[in-house]
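discrete fold record:
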Amino acid sequence: MAAMSAPDSIDLARLRRSCAKCSLQQLCLPAGVSARELEQLERIVQRNRHVGRGERLFWPGAPLTGVFVAREGAFKTTVLDESGEEQVLGFHLPGEVIGLDAMGTGVHRCEAVALGEAQVCEIPFDQLTTVAAQLPSLQQQLMRVIGQGVDRDQDHLGVLVRRQANERVALFLHGLGERLRTVGLSSSRFRLPMSREDIARYLGLALETVSRGFTRLQDDGVIEVTGRQVEVLDPERLTRMAHGAEEERNARRGRA
């Protein structure tokens, strides 16, 4: 492709600002992409749709019409189990893509619910695939985003197989911090967008068990919790606990 001219650079700067917290931002950054192609991608993105607290983006059985990126706010994806109890499958932070669960079948298997007031960008799926066929960098980024979704699913399974409740809570906080770091936010000081009840449903634990886990981490000096505000005081120890190294070390000391 031709080298980018001065007007192209202006367009690129504008797109960088508009997508500053978007997990798809790297699609606009490769040097070989022309201003026309960037504008083509920009045109299909439906920006700044307001989503109220508790409002759904989609629900089980709804057809795949587009994928969403939270510009502000956070979402949870949920399903109902056989007894009608809500199970939380995952949480989606600002800059993360929501709606990839329907890519295989064309219909959603879960629902996405806003945890608070939110702003999202919606990308119509049919237009996205058309543009992606013309922009190799877009196809590559889509594959990365899909891979990140698979990684998060695997991380969730890794949480659920942990025997110790404290490990599950530590792994959850550690993983949340790492995801916040990825989208340019602090991994050591953050506000939990989800309730303790949602965390319990995600971790497969009773609410009381989750509350005791937070209390123990605070009593041990690992975190400081005020309401939903969390400050990680000892990130190294939180990492050890998240990976089971703390319990293993304590067990070795007990045997000694």
